[in-house]
């Protein structure tokens, strides 16, 4: 009886060890496998994304607290007009619709919805004038690097990343990373501007069913001692997660979060708290041509 029990225990032990070995071997194999992340857009298709950016800023100065908040919901469109022999992709970038809400302190919330046909508040007029129009015509290579553009976008960067996702030029394995340098300009108390060097660090976190999950965070390379400078930086530093479709070659989603506090940015009794969230979700793919009146 005892020998029988020991035999059964031995079988279970061997089975467990075998499963553990296979699991570890599978994980090791996953880590060894290299993935080549590339954009693969087709001429005539439209990539439509829903973008939502929510932010709340709480400022304390001279024992007085003030809260301001804003929410922007928009429909972003890439319309691919050409793919050349080199695989470079040209697309027109525009915003089809936008809904804006902004409030400061106890004041009344100011709202604008481009789809509602309502009167445009003065502060939102520059945005309203761009709806449905081509904001830029951009050509990128398969790694998301901009080859050319016909005009510069005037929107602030605000840590949301560039218009395209800069991909690693080399195949990468799970756990590996690459980085992209960037500069942020801040204003000093003297009125002069200072350039702060940062880099966006991307890490391939995992791959499942053809979808790569990337982690992104911004590393500040220039030493920053002044709290006033830190207060300008916090909105422009990224941290979050990106999903990229390896087979179809496009971004599926981006989620970024901010929870930052700076104390003493304008004296000992001052503080600045910034809470924000940015989401971008690919909605659909359409091939229907749009009217030339929208350009």
Overview of the structural elements:
The protein has 295 residues and is mainly β. 14% of the residues lie in helices and 48% in strands. It contains three helices and twelve strands, in the order H-E-E-E-E-H-E-E-E-E-E-H-E-E-E. It has helices at residues 2-32, 125-128, 227-233, and strands at 46-61, 64-83, 89-104, 110-113, 134-140, 146-149, 177-187, 193-208, 211-220, 239-245, 250-263, 271-286. Strands 1, 2, 3, 4, 5, 6, 7, 8, 9, 10, 11 and 12 form a twelve-stranded antiparallel β-sheet that branches. Strand 7 (177-187) and strand 8 (193-208) form a beta hairpin. The protein is globular, with a radius of gyration of 24 Å. It starts with a helix and ends in a 9-residue tail after the last strand.
Summarize the structure.
With 295 residues, the protein is mainly beta. The chain has three helices and twelve strands. A hairpin with a 5-residue loop joins strand 2 and strand 3 (89-104).
